[in-house]
Design brief:
Blueprint (H helix, E strand, L loop, with lengths): L1 H17 L7 H6 L32 E11 L8 H17 L1 E9 L7 H21 L7 E5 L16 H6 L8 E11 L2
Parallel strand pairs: 2-3
Antiparallel strand pairs: 1-4, 2-4
Length: 192
């Protein structure tokens, strides 16, 4: 019986081995991908390196030049500023120092007082120098400051004041001179 069974099963097994393999359907063939070659492993690092942060710098902008100006008044024949004018100069110096890099500071001294040109020029120069000293005390760099004395008048009496006596002219507000002005102009450059 065993031999019979053996002869029955053996041809079935041989027949199954002899049959050609079945080809996959065409739709499956297009989806089959070729195996990818294994990529090389990354090289071994001999030491551990810390992560280096990248710094991003903002785009450079062209420097902008700004001119700041202040006009201060001196009383006739006086070299010292009033308390109000000195407070104005303090505020101005603070603004200048916060605004940017100082390029140049120009101080124009004037003298409207009567007298010879030599006297007026000397008084104008002394006023410009006194303003320079005050600005230097407030932190303005000395190498940026230039002074000059000018003879050009800074105030002229209106036409309605001409020919009136000094007592009558003092009663009219427009006829009273505010004093001799000195001009401080500062050029600064800033880059944002």
């Amino acid at each position: 019986m065993f031999t019979r069974l053996y002869f029955c099963v053996l041809p079935v097994l041989l027949a199954s081995c002899a049959t050609p393999p079945v080809a996959p359907p065409p739709a499956l063939i297009s989806r089959v991908e070729a195996p990818r070659p294994a990529s090389a492993p990354p090289p071994m690092v001999s030491r551990i390196e810390a992560h280096r942060p990248t710094t991003v710098s903002p785009p450079r902008r062209s420097p902008q030049e700004t001119t700041l100006a202040l006009e201060v008044f001196f009383a006739p024949r006086i070299l010292k500023l009033s308390a109000k004018q000195e407070a104005n100069l303090d505020s101005f110096a603070g603004l200048v120092l916060r605004n940017g890099n100082i390029t140049v500071v120009t101080i124009d001294g004037h003298a409207d007082e009567p007298g010879t040109d030599k006297y007026r020029l000397a008084l104008a120069g002394q006023r410009a120098e006194s303003l320079k000293r005050l600005l230097l005390l407030r932190g303005v760099p000395v190498d940026k400051v230039t002074t000059q004395a000018l003879l050009a008048p800074t105030w002229e009496a209106p036409k309605g004041c001409i020919g009136k006596s000094p007592a009558a002219a003092r009663k009219i507000p427009d006829c009273v001179s505010p004093g001799t002005s000195a001009k401080v102009s500062v050029k600064t450059t800033t880059t944002d």
